Amino acid sequence: MKTDSPHILCVNPWIHDFAAFDFWAKPLGLLTLAAIMREKGITVSYIDCLDRFHPREPSQMKVLWDGRGPFRKTQIDLPQGLENTGKKFSRYGIKPQWFKEDLEQINKPDIIFVTSLMTYWASGVQETIEAVKEVYPDIPVVLGGIYASLCHDHAAKNTLADLVIKGPGEHQLKNIIQKFTGFELDAGNLPDVNIPDVEISGVSDVPGISNRVNDLDDLPFPALDLQNKIVYAPVLTSRGCPFSCEYCASSYLEPKLRRRSPENVFKEIEHWHYSHGVKNFAFYDDALLVNAGKYAFLLFEKIIASKMDLFFHTPNALHIREITRKAADLMFEAGFKTIRLGLETTDFSADRSHDVKVAENEFFNAIAHLKAAGFEEKQIGAYLLCGLPGQNLDDVEASVQVVKHAGIIPVLAYYTPIPHTPMWSDAVKQSKFNLLEHPVFTNNTLFPCVNSSRDLARISQLKNS
């Protein structure tokens, strides 16, 4: 058994896309693993290929008041099969030479962990691992994250990763580290997720983690301090979602809704504010307000009582029916500045094609509560799904008008076909691309399930209306 602590490098990969912007986007899973390993005595390094504040960045990157801002952008060749789209494709993030220099300047790692987010950013992950292997060809690379979980076979076949894992990584750490380094990680108090279809190929002979508990409060706060600069902090108060929407993979990635205590979440917010001066926080939850009386309200009350001057944002959308007058008042007093509602459509009929999660009166009541609490129109946006398989754009246009009439901002959410979702098979059948060939064809910028040029023009008009 190896007793010397290994050195593990964590890498957040480049993005390859037609457009990208830092909308409070951080690799929370990877940074949580980094914090766990650091807490267990392992040496951890971190390189963020999306770093807006890289030391070699010659110009100060723009930072909006809420912490968001643009990534460095470099045009690259269009993926095969998209050469005739007339679009421009880019690498977002630091220069490859900077990445190479960063890799060469750190002490040689024993394992390299690479995360992944959007499935259609697959080629960015591929390029990142190729760059890693050029500097450290003999060091094992472990790939995890959303793309790795949803497109496991594609990732295993098309990247140079030595191991591709599915699902949350914290309960797989012990096996991975022991397999590649021989180091015995003390895995006590790591949460047990009990998720089927989570596998580590080739390590079945390694003993699993003992003394596991199902308590997210036992996890350390993510290692945001490994960044060159912290301009906002992502916060996740829960994992999972009680809904199983046809277009969403949340219930596949996290089959159970698990919660952190309000006390634990408050301590995290307090930590980043007082230790690092962070004022902007983005909630990553899929179900922030669900069962709010036992969770969110207690957290908001603690924030209000603390009198910390903070700004909160909800990019992942709030469940509309949970926005009561009390919820709206507490959010306003706590310092919420960006409210996004998961509306999807204003077709509230019971016989509509897709799930009905909110009734018409609930939608208008929620808006009334938010405005009565003090929120302005520019702070409230409602996500409307656009580009679904077989979708009638008349319904989208009608929804846009209803939302505008309600006095808030319609935000078109372009549909991305995602494997392991109920809608995936319809998308595969109706798409103008072969979605099974490569994840890049699922990119919502391409509107893969909109086959009419007339409809594409109409979507453009709706976006700009």
TrEMBL record:
PROSITE patterns membership: B12_BINDING (PS51332), RADICAL_SAM (PS51918)
Keyword check for Transferase: no
Pfam family, one: Radical_SAM
Domain of life: Bacteria
Keyword terms: Iron, Iron-sulfur, Metal-binding, S-adenosyl-L-methionine
Cofactor(s) this protein cannot do without: [4Fe-4S] cluster
Residues of the B12-binding domain: 12-187
Radical SAM core domain segment(s): 227-446
One Gene Ontology CC term in the entry: cytosol
Keyword Nucleotide-binding: no
Gene Ontology molecular function, alphabetical: 4 iron, 4 sulfur cluster binding; catalytic activity; cobalamin binding; metal ion binding
This protein's name: B12 binding domain-containing protein
Species assigned in the record: Desulfobacula phenolica
